[in-house]
Amino acid sequence: MRRPVATRRTQTALAGLAAGLLLLAGCSSGKSAAKTPAGNASSGAPTADAFGVRPNIQVPAGQPDGKLGVKVKIPGDGTKVTDGSVVVLQFAAKLWRDGSDLGSSYDQGQHPAIEVEGQKQMLAGWEQGLKGQAAGSRVELVVPPALAFGSKGTTDGKITINGTDTIIFDIDIVGVYPSVQADIPAGTGALSDAALPTVATAVGKDDPKVTIPAGKQPPKDAVYKPVIVGSGAQVKKGQTVVVQYEGLVWRTGQIFDSSFSKSKSLFATRIGVGDVVPGWDEGLVGQTVGSRMLLVVPPDKGYGAQGQPDAGIQGTDTMVFVVDILDAR
């Protein structure tokens, strides 16, 4: 799955256990200190029983019955999953056999799965169990071998799933969309500042047109401004946001990464928890769903003095992002 250059940490110990499905070996990249989990009760944050927080899966006593089990633990009221739907999913998984934790997309540095229902991109148990479920739901799936990895099982790194293993998943359905080219609603421009880049308000498949002000130096401090003000709920720290985005270098005016240019495909990440550069965490939390945001991100809110040479970003470069916020849960 594509990662934008805004992502700060790389995924490690990931197993390609099924096409498009990432199961973790339960560790992060180790590039930065781990933060307190969002579900830590002592912090006053939501518990693991809440949508949007890493689930705490309880393995039942006894033996599995070999059938697909589907239980809606938290009912949602959003769009329902149908064949062809693009679904954004957060998940955790355990083996029934011994309770082994297979990891979670909520773990530090990881990102949600973005899959298409009915296209055999997911485990068969996921496709069958998620069909008809609503966005905003947490669904527990008990997936027998025949609907998971079959009689041969699979092994990747420290993870071994036997051919007789039943897997328990808790899956949060963050969003359901008709296609990966989903858009925010059209809106009128809300930004007028000669010192900042101009951003077109047209909504569609092409990159939003961004013009860097000629002859002007970027602001020293970060600037986060709405171009289109959405009418949805405010984005909260720790939520998963679903976005389309475009990134440019102020110095050159060149696009270095864009979901619009890459066949326009959705990107999703938890926000406000350090999974992306600080300019995204600071600039998107508190904004409203449906907004188009201009984020002017200086080096200290981006990649620092090391930059991202492979993307043409020097350590002194200010980045300019346009981010359309489609969803936040």
What does this structure look like?
The chain is mainly beta. It has two domains: 14-26 and 39-55 and 64-177, Roll (Chitinase A, domain 3); 198-328, Chitinase A, domain 3. It is 4% helix and 30% strand. It is built from two helices and 18 strands. Strands 3, 4, 5, 6, 7 and 10 form a six-stranded antiparallel sheet that branches. Mean pLDDT is 85; it is low at 8-45.
Low-confidence parts: 8-45
Measured distance between first and last alpha carbons: 21 Å
Mean pLDDT: 85
CATH class of the largest domain reads Alpha Beta
What coarse outline follows from CA principal-axis ratios? elongated
Quick take:
The protein contains two helices and 18 strands.
Fold topology:
Blueprint: E1 14-18, E2 21-24, E3 69-74, E4 86-95, E5 101-104, E6 113-116, H1 124-130, E7 138-143, E8 154-156, E9 159-161, E10 167-177, E11 198-199, E12 210-211, E13 223-228, E14 240-249, E15 255-258, E16 267-270, H2 278-284, E17 292-297, E18 319-328
Antiparallel strand pairs: 1-2, 3-7, 4-5, 4-6, 4-10, 7-10, 8-9, 11-12, 13-17, 14-15, 14-16, 14-18, 17-18
